[in-house]
Design goal:
The chain has 273 residues and is an alpha/beta fold. The protein contains eight helices and nine strands. The termini are far apart.
Length: 273
């Protein structure tokens, strides 16, 4: 079924309103997955350093933005939810990071609204990309925003490898229902492949232990388990078994270039270095 032009706008309004209502509880709700953030922050540290410019997409209350800013990275923190951005501004002031973090209300599926200055990196964590109705539009926009050689690290809610179907999960946020589209690693990469080549992919939460175990451990132990899962799941058969997928992507030299030498398919077990 084709969506009418108003349906994506209605979806964005509903998602923004739901995350507004959820903003005060957001940090507490995600605290149990701090171990996963720490795995991601280690990944970010390998790619981005002082003086780099990074766009944080669906930044929420800014945990990733602030972690990057503490290391001297200049961050544009984008979200549909004004309530989330209000909390981010409070936190950045409290941590004396306002000069490095610029919150913006932004729909990344609409290229005309995106900042046009090239970024060194783009990050997005904890299901922000799963709420997009048109991830290909985001992919094209993201490729245009990155400098050559820049990197994009996406942390997604994952679905099992089951044919070519994308699963839908409805999540209650602030008393409202928001649909999230879930992708296997292979499905997720196919959305971005026309504009990006894959540098790294791995799964988290459920690879080496049952889902949820890392959250039950003290944060340092949960983080250690997450790092082991990230290393073990870069290739089949463990790739795709976790609750989350992480894709590290680099823009192609031109957006029209098709998949060819140097590319990777998550199902093949081969990844670019």
């Amino acid at each position: 079924m084709r969506e009418s032009p108003t349906e994506p706008r209605d979806h964005h309004r509903r998602a923004g309103a739901a995350y507004d209502a959820f903003a005060e509880a957001y940090d507490h709700a995600l605290a149990r997955d701090l171990w996963a953030r720490r795995v991601l922050w280690r990944h970010h540290r390998r790619l981005f350093g002082a003086g780099d410019r990074v766009l944080d997409v669906a930044c929420g209350t800014g945990a990733d933005s602030l972690a990057l800013a503490h290391r001297g990275v200049r961050v544009v923190a984008a979200d549909l939810s004004p309530g989330m951005l209000v909390r981010l501004r409070r936190k950045s002031r409290a941590e004396d990071l306002s000069a490095r973090v610029t919150p913006v209300a932004l729909n990344v599926e609409r290229p005309g609204l995106a900042p046009r200055t090239p970024f060194d990196g783009i990050v997005s964590s904890f299901a922000g990309i799963n709420t997009l109705r048109d991830p290909r539009a985001f992919a094209a926009t993201a490729a245009s925003l990155l400098r050559p050689g820049g990197r994009m690290v996406l942390h997604l809610l994952a679905s099992p490898e089951r044919g070519g179907d994308t699963a839908t999960r409805t999540i209650e946020l602030g008393g409202q229902s928001v649909d999230h589209l879930l992708y296997s690693p292979r499905q997720a990469y196919r959305l971005f492949a026309p504009w990006f080549r894959l540098r790294l992919v791995y799964s988290l939460d459920g690879v080496l232990a049952p889902r949820g175990w890392a959250a039950r451990l003290p944060v340092p132990l949960g983080t250690a388990l997450g790092l082991l899962e990230a290393a073990a799941s870069r290739r089949p058969p463990l790739l795709g078994r976790g609750r989350f997928s992480v894709l590290d992507l680099e823009p192609r030299p031109t957006s029209q270039e098709s998949c060819r030498g140097g590319d990777s398919d998550p199902s093949s077990g081969r990844q670019a270095s």
